[in-house]
């Protein structure tokens, strides 16, 4: 005796679909964690006027950065390129974000 077609189908439970994959998610999480740790090491962000940097006039900010050895270093960050439209002074967290952006884009000089 043959069973009807419907009862012969084996239904498997649906798997959750991860479109980016576990490796990519791990990389994104690692980047986020290092960004959080780097931002925590930036403090005392202050405006420092304007200076010539990379052939353009740039707003300058100074900030303290805690190095891996625990020593406090002072840096100048230049708001150039895509960062030039930002303005300092609207809150400590926003200023730290600007210092982080200059740090990550390489537009900094140790003083």
Give the helix/strand class: alpha+beta
Shape: elongated
Per DSSP, the total helix count is 3
Which percent range fits the helix content? 25-40%
Q: Nearest-angstrom radius of gyration?
A: 25 Å
Mean pLDDT: 85
The number of distinct β-strands equals: 4
Give the uncertain stretches in residue-range form: none
**Major sheet summary line:** 4 strands, antiparallel
Describe the strand arrangement of the main beta sheet, using strand numbers.
1-2-3-4
Strand percentage: 25-35%
Order of helices and strands: HHEEEHE
Distance separating the two termini: 88 Å
Quick structural gist:
With 111 residues, the chain is α+β, with helices and mostly antiparallel strands. The protein has three helices and four strands.
Topology:
Blueprint: H1 5-8, H2 22-40, E1 42-53, E2 56-66, E3 72-79, H3 92-105, E4 108-110
Q: Can you put this structure into words, describing what you see?
A:
The chain is α+β, with helices and mostly antiparallel strands and 111 residues long. It is built from 3 helices and 4 strands; from the N terminus they run ααβββαβ. A 4-stranded antiparallel beta sheet has the order 1-2-3-4. The longest helix has 19 residues, at 22-40. The N and C termini lie far apart (88 Å). 13% of the residues are buried.
């Amino acid at each position: 005796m043959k069973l009807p077609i419907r009862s012969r189908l084996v239904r498997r439970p649906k798997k959750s679909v991860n479109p980016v994959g576990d490796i990519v998610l791990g990389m994104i999480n690692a980047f986020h964690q290092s960004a959080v740790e780097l931002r925590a090491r930036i403090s005392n962000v202050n405006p420092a006027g304007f200076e010539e940097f990379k052939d353009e006039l740039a707003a300058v900010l100074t900030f303290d950065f805690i190095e891996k050895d625990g020593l406090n270093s002072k840096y100048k960050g230049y708001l150039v390129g895509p960062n030039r439209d930002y303005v300092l002074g609207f809150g400590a967290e926003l200023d730290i974000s600007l210092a982080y952006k200059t740090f990550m884009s390489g537009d900094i000089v140790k003083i």
